[in-house]
Amino acid sequence: MAAVTPEVLTSTHVEKMKKKKLPKRYWEETEKTDQSQRRPEEEQGKAGQNQNKSTVKEKSLKRKNGESLEKKDPFPGEAPIPQKQLQKFQRGKKCKVPAGARERLKEAIAISEAMSEHAQKQAARYDLLLPEDAGFLEGDEDEDTNTISQADIADAVDITSGSKYFNLHLSQFGPYRLDYSRTGRNLLVGGKKGHVACIDWQTKDLKCEMNVMETVNDVKWLHTEAMFAVAQKRWLYIYDSKGVELHCVKKFNDVLRMQFLPYHFLLATASATGFLQYLDVSIGKEVAAICTKMGRLDVMAQNPHNAVIHLGHPNGTVSLWSPNQKESLVKMLCHRGAVRSLAVDKTGTYMVTSGLDRKLKVYDIRAFKPLHSCFLPAGASCLSLSQRGLLSAATGEIVQVYQNVLGSNPVSKPYMAHRLRGQIWGLAYCPFEDVLGIGHGEGFTSMIVPGAGEPNFDALDTNPYRSHKQRQEWEVKALLEKVQPELIGLDPGQLSKVDQASFEQRHKEQIEALGFDPLAKDKFKPKTKKKGRSSAGAIEKRKRKVAHEDQRDEIRQSVQERTEREKELKEKSNEKKLGNKSTLDRFRK
Amino acid sequence: MQNENLVQISFFNQLMLVHPRKKQNERSEASVQVSEYFVNAEGTGDKVNLSDLLGTVEKTSGASNKTKKQLRNLQSSKETLELPLNKQQTEKVSAEFSVQLLVSCWKNIILQNQKAEQMVFPLNQESSGPKRVEQVVAGWKVQTPLEQEIFRLLHGSRQPVNDPVLTPVEEQSLKAMSLEEAKIRRAELQKARALQSYYEAKAKREKKIKSKKYHKVQNKAKRKDFLKQFDEMVKTNPEGALEELKKMELSRMEERMSLKHQNSGKWAKSKAIMAKYDDSARKAMQEQLQMNKDLTQKMVVPSDDEHESIEEGLETVPDFVNDPETVIDPVNPWMRGQLTHEEPEVSCVTAEEVQTAEEENEEEEIIGEFERKRKLRQVVEEDVVEVSDKEEEEDEEEDVSEFNTLFRLMRSEKTREGSNQTRGGLNTAGEEDEEGLLSEGQIRVRSIEDLEVLDEVVEPRAIEEPSAPQTAAAEATSEPPHKKKREINLKEVLTKEAKAVRLPFLPTVVDEEERDEQISIIKEAFAGDDVISDFIKDKSRQEAAGRPAVVDLTLPGWGEWGGVGLKPPRWKRKRFRIKTAPPPPRQDQKLPDVIISEKRTASVASHQVSQLPFPFQNTAQFESSIRTPIGSTWNTQTVVKNMTKPKVVTKLGAIIEPMVKEDFIKSKTTSKLWLLEIGHKKKKKKLFMFLVLWGCMLVPVRFAYNSVFVLIFFYY
């Protein structure tokens, strides 16, 4: 009864007084539920007194409002997921259960299907945790975006973003090659004349700087910011982030270009002698050395999708390589002149090439078919693709950035352009940033390209903001999850397929791999006996005794097979004979 | 059914053959009691036939016609009955059957468990920890007025009545307490275990020691201890002391009987000889004598026995033992009592020390030897390592030299190729010029705009068409004949229309020098290159290599004339040239500007699944079943957990008991099962009750219980 009075009060004008609520106690909620639970009982009690009335009332109410009196969940079931998102996370096609399948098969398929559907749904649901959008640059009416200068952009954007446009004037040590670390925090530049420096480019913090007193052909970060490789005049050197020389790998000579395969911990190098070599940086071992027989290799790219190395050659071909095969996986004729530069997009679908014939071509490397090509008057000496698919091409002293190159629509006009002084030697987009790094004769330029970087990073894979501890942890995990070089191939999903080679073929491969036949029968070796019975003659005699055993076995087998075959033939012929008889024969005994 | 029949038959036989082995005795004299066994029927030896019995049935009116007919049939049938199975066989049959029955009822649950995604053991586990009151008193309602009153009061005071009796925090704290206790308990257990292991280790170690001296000392010490304890025992536990005394008495008796420690043994005699010259031997002898004395001494009552024993000792000890010793041991050992223990002990200890010292020396020597050996080995190893290093270096050098030679080779090839190219260049120079004019090519139509563009393009193409055949003709000369079949013209693909990109604003300042440079570069690039024909050649070479070669087994001159310029006849060629089946079409068959290697990658194959796993019927099914990765890289946390959950979960420390039938059969108790259980537990009384019930009293006792109940089951 006491509980009723406050309700009465609240309905009156004293409402404001009661606004301050008591702190909630854990039993309060239960009390309410108790009341709600008890209500039906009380009602029942009442119902006993005036059953007829209440039922009549209820019925009338129901008639008036239909079924609206019962409260229903307005959103029953789990929240729906848009089809588009589901599509995004779909893996392969569903398997249908065949008509006459066994029970076990049905169950196995049902379980796996349910599991993959669940995984897909969950992934689609979590997609909402990737909220960031890539930016873009939009000009005014009748204004081409490529006329907007970098200085204007830097002025317009916020200070931190503006500071990402900068120049390093390094005119002494010649054209620069560059590489960004996988997290995008660190920049490595290597001048042709021996100047090597690594910089935390956002804070402009110089980590190390040195002159190796030798020609530097290429520079590359290894799996972390702690190590980088420098291809010098003769050998390949590995330094740590403080510039201390860790290794001089003399097996790798005359290296011109390098690529690092992060998930395999492989450093792939292409040399002037035409060798493609793979160095496993986790164990410091050369995995494969392939003589490409294609001459000087100075154009190289990697396919991030399947870790296949693409090489461009002076005869206009592009060849694809894996460390497991001594010959190229694929060789495609792309240009009529030498190939000058190559780039492969993140999904491994498209390849962009430029050649001495001043053409820029886009290929679909799943089908190895050209999609479209365009003619650049100056030709493109360097190409680079960003994470979001922006293509930058160095044409002479001008860097052009193209949008929507990948896909069907042809190249029309550049999205952005920037003019530099001196020959461009290296182009690279910074991961997770809207920044394009340009190495040229006069030093290094960092250029702002809105919409270039991937806005949503996977912090467990590459975290630009990771701490020292996180980096250590990541390194251990990455090493544990290292993919073996044997798994590199055109189809990265090869592993999940059933090997359908015949037993003979597999056996042959096994013999090749092992160097001997594991299933071979041992040659008969007579026992050594004493008392002069193991003389050469005796041994020979004993050998002679079993000499024909194998042959006999074979003969026996072949005879058996023949008899079986004959039997079958006979049966067949009998059947044929029977086949001539009337249909009523089947009722015979 | 077979089993059933067998069992029935055997039963029947058992009924019919009443004591078949018992020999029938002849009746010799009259007696008061007439046993049925001793009654001889008329015409002894004759068997009672069925027909003899049936005669009466025919006459009786009570029997139904049906049975009569059946009996008549039985009589007329001349089939002999089968021999009854012997005991072992019947037992075996019945046992098998019972096992089958037992197993069959488990089948379902086993299947179910096999299919289950996850099993949690122990089954039917209850949640540990304190239960909530409302869980315990579920379904209890406030009924009496008193209870109602109390509850009202409780409500008024806002006490938790129904729901959480224990708040989560309280529950946690409770659990924490238990955890602490558990920790303490565990620590105690750990300590106990550790101590036990130490003692065990010690005992083992001591047991292993072979030194007799050591054990002697040890035994002595024990004895001493024991004596001390005995003294205490006398005060505290007289009964125990008495028992000990008895034991001692017993040992004394034994000693006196065996005279083990007299100097009558082999060892003692040899020592006696030595004792003259060797102090240690003498000491040993004395010790033994002391032992003897101690053992034979009467402990409690110092009386005449003592003197006797002394005398005995005096008698037994030879003189030469004591003579020289008087100097060393002035005290009479017979009078020393317990003190005498210490003297030899000390000497023992010193001896031990000497020995240990010696041992140490030996050990040192051994260690030294080991070290020497190790050093030697290291040297050898180092040598090996050095050798291997050298080998590696040599390998490297070889590699480098290989590289160099290859490089040189390649260079020479290149120069050759270059010369070829220059030669080819002359041929194709004309083509090059023409190709400049060509704008014909594949156009990808993707949108409506593209279609419009296509229309525009059509006209110029029509004009340019005549030039195309010319190039084709030019190609025909250089290409191998099979190339003609190609639908797609390579040149068309390569001279695909390229859209020129114009930069509207950029000051495309091209210095004259640069332009000249570029032009020269381009000229250089195109000068000697006939890139396309080279590529085509390469491809045709690859294709040829991929085709299986024809095996020619013809023997020229075999069976006919041979000689220079003579060809083997056609029939021979036909017969002895073996053609293998052509390989499947190449992947790059329809891609003229691509060469795809047809080599199988064996490296991945070793990691692949080579045989289809069990329930799957084809590869597509299996592949689709593993298409979703289970790693955390590709999935959300919950999904990974769900996908990789273990098949069996066991609770740590819980006893997993074997499954009981009650677990899965809740209300399905049938009479059959009950019977089986009785049989299983061999409850004799119940079993015989059944026997009585079913009127099977004649079933002999030698029947196995199992078979009996199975039998009953069948009748039932």
From TrEMBL, chain A:
UniProt-annotated stretches for the region Disordered: 1-95, 522-589
Domain of life: Eukaryota
Listed PROSITE patterns: WD_REPEATS_2 (PS50082)
Keywords of the record: Nucleus, Phosphoprotein, Repeat, WD repeat
Keyword Zinc-finger: no
Cross-referenced Pfam families: BING4CT (PF08149), WD40 (PF00400)
Subcellular location: Nucleus, Nucleolus
Composition skew (Basic and acidic residues), residue ranges: 25-45, 55-75, 547-589
Intervals holding WD repeats: 332-373
InterPro entries given in the database record: BING4_C_dom, WD40/YVTN_repeat-like_dom_sf, WD40_repeat_dom_sf, WD40_rpt, WDR46/Utp7
GO biological processes: maturation of SSU-rRNA from tricistronic rRNA transcript (SSU-rRNA, 5.8S rRNA, LSU-rRNA)
Domain BING4 C-terminal span(s) in chain numbering: 414-492
Gene Ontology cellular-component terms listed: 90S preribosome; small-subunit processome
Keyword Membrane tagged: no
Record's subunit section: Part of the small subunit (SSU) processome, composed of more than 70 proteins and the RNA chaperone small nucleolar RNA (snoRNA) U3. Interacts with DDX21, NCL, NOP2 and EBNA1BP2.
Role according to the record: Scaffold component of the nucleolar structure. Required for localization of DDX21 and NCL to the granular compartment of the nucleolus. Part of the small subunit (SSU) processome, first precursor of the small eukaryotic ribosomal subunit. During the assembly of the SSU processome in the nucleolus, many ribosome biogenesis factors, an RNA chaperone and ribosomal proteins associate with the nascent pre-rRNA and work in concert to generate RNA folding, modifications, rearrangements and cleavage as well as targeted degradation of pre-ribosomal RNA by the RNA exosome.
Protein name, UniProt field: WD repeat-containing protein 46
UniProtKB/TrEMBL annotation, chain B:
Family: Belongs to the UTP14 family.
Stored InterPro entries: SSU_processome_Utp14
GO BP of this protein: rRNA processing
Keywords: Membrane, Nucleus, Phosphoprotein, Transmembrane, Transmembrane helix
Cell compartments where the protein resides: Nucleus, Nucleolus
Transmembrane segments: 687-715
This protein's name: UTP14C small subunit processome component
Top-level taxon in the UniProt lineage: Eukaryota
Region (Disordered): 383-402, 413-438, 461-485
Record's GO cellular component terms: small-subunit processome
Keyword Iron belongs to the record: no
Predominant subcellular localization, coarse grouping: nucleus
Comp. bias (Acidic residues): 383-401
